[in-house]
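Per-record layout

source: Zunongwangia endophytica
name: prolyl oligopeptidase
length: 719
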Amino acid sequence: MKKIMIGVFTLAALASCKDSEKTKKEKTALNYPETKKVDTVTDYFGTKVKDPYRWLEDDRSKETEEWVRAQNEVTFGYLDKIPFKEDLKKRLSEIWNYEKIGAPYQEGDYTYFSKNDGLQNQYVLYRRKNDEEKPEVFLDPNKFSEDGTTSLSGLSFSENGKMAAYSISEGGSDWRKVIVLDAETKEIAEDTLKDIKFSGISWKGNEGFYYSSYEKPEGSELSAKTDQHRLFYHKIGTPQTEDKMIFGGNADQKHRYVGGSVSEDNRYLFISARNSTSGGKLFMMDLTKSNPELKTIIGNEDTDTYVIENEGSKLYIVTNLDAPNQRIVTVDAANPEPENWKDFIAETENVLSPSTGGGYFFTEYMVDAVSKVKQYDYDGNLVREVELPGLGSAGGFGAKKEDKTLYYSFTNYVTPGTIYKYDIEEGTSEVYNKPNIKFNPEDYESRQVFYKSKDGTKIPMIITAKKGIDLNGKNPTILYGYGGFNISLTPSFSTANAVWLEQGGVYAVPNLRGGGEYGREWHDAGTKMQKQNVFDDFIAAAEYLIENKYTSKDYLAIRGGSNGGLLVGATMTQRPDLMKVALPAVGVMDMLRYHTFTAGAGWAYDYGTSEDSKEMFDYIYNYSPVHNVKEGTEYPATLVTTGDHDDRVVPAHSFKFAAELQEKQSGNEPVLIRIETKAGHGAGKPTSMIIEEYADIFGFTLYNMGFEKLPSKNKELKD
């Protein structure tokens, strides 16, 4: 057992203490489980890299299982002793307990919508035939499993709405099962389809649907590599063994991610084929022909291109070819190659995210990460700019061609997601559903600032806090980031973060390079040999918050998940002096081996790999969190979180990082790993599990900032 001393602060009212007053620190021993080391060494271009914890990559071994149990015993023993954890859990449960309703949509004779009464683990899908009828339950995922860990992960209806196919995830795994229903009777219509992964469900009329999957890997299905994705067609009433392979069955068609989508008129099948999360090929088939040929639209992986709509043989294509911020072009299906494209909606200085509905195009633009939406007709004429409720994020401007109304959502960091009903012809909006949540947005405000990163690049950041907050450097602050994979962090409300704000907390989100907020160039500026830009942007955000007295080192926590977990891991190993608490979640921590697990090799566009070249290896090795934990360094209080069923970013990343930190931490701050069982990368996690996790995360954070009771319980919050 390894023993480390951690500080437990005795503070009756931290915020009211005078600078001259000294708090007393009690020392208590925290015993970490001993993590054995093995003599595993890999040679990368002449550099021999030790990997003493590689045995933790075996998620099926009894040794790993015992290590997980022992770590959780220590972690939950610590977390359960935090004096205000139950207060946090109670408040999280209170604020979470409100009715949540999803936007309605029409399928066949029924209107469908999802609803959660408040604290249900999973949303329930309801339907009704007309507005007067009382809704009936169509699918209740809460009954899929006793503990709520089996979730509904996808649902698609046949053209006439009489059949439905839905996918489920068990324990948070990316592997899915697909169940086919007679939508009229709600009876299961045939045998369950199994071993499906990274797949949509796209119907061809009422006859059957397309889906994608891999061969089930040898070894562990949670961590073994999967790299040849294939597209299948399932005809209703036939067994899965008879499903026809459409694409991906030979070496020429080998890609890591393959998807199929049928046009709304059932005329065309469009097939995307990628080897990375950015850039891909695009093909099509004319389904009106008895033996349709595969026709190439884009034959290389240099662009992100997809078909959004068609009118007969006229295709509308979204692309970033010669347009880093994206544009829409048109072309005839007979000759769909780029040399025949014509601009329909040209590129602008803002990133375009289009959708269609009711016979119109809706173009959402990000203007410094805030939404602006315009409506165009099918001739490319601007009809109007959609008037939004305020500054924030709008989404969901999609509907079928014949629909007269659509529903969109609007949210920001202080406004709970509200659904609006939009009259497509008139261009008017009305509130459809506004949540009745026990939180007053009027007490809080968000402001956007711009700060300079290390190389002088201007980075936007939105800071949210109570109105009139005292900039005294003592506000508990969470700095949240992602910075990768062309993903944009736009303003959105979080029920959990509302509780953080109530505690006088500051929540800050910078739009780092590597994201998609300013198009492909912004994304590329945070990839491969420029990945350090992302970490520098995050570090500069922390320095801005400290310099402007929002917080200080003693009250700053950094948080991020997945690629954001890498961000936290790299930042805390490069600048351990900058923050008090680090919260890396489901992070990519072993950058030398990430591409050897599941579909990890598909992330190479963003990261490169340690096998590409000596130059790339040296660059990655220099920031890989697992390999940059140094002896004799005082690291911040760290709570690593992961799930034992995470088959996207395998938990071994977090296991190895935690083991390195526990061995080498020279300071008094705790290093714990919280391993959720029967949980994956995050999707479909039951409400009860989410509330428990946030109570632990916020509790750990505030406790290690010196609080013995919740800040909101203190009568005085100012000196």
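summary: The chain is about 15% helix and 35% strand. The two ends are 42 Å apart (CA to CA).
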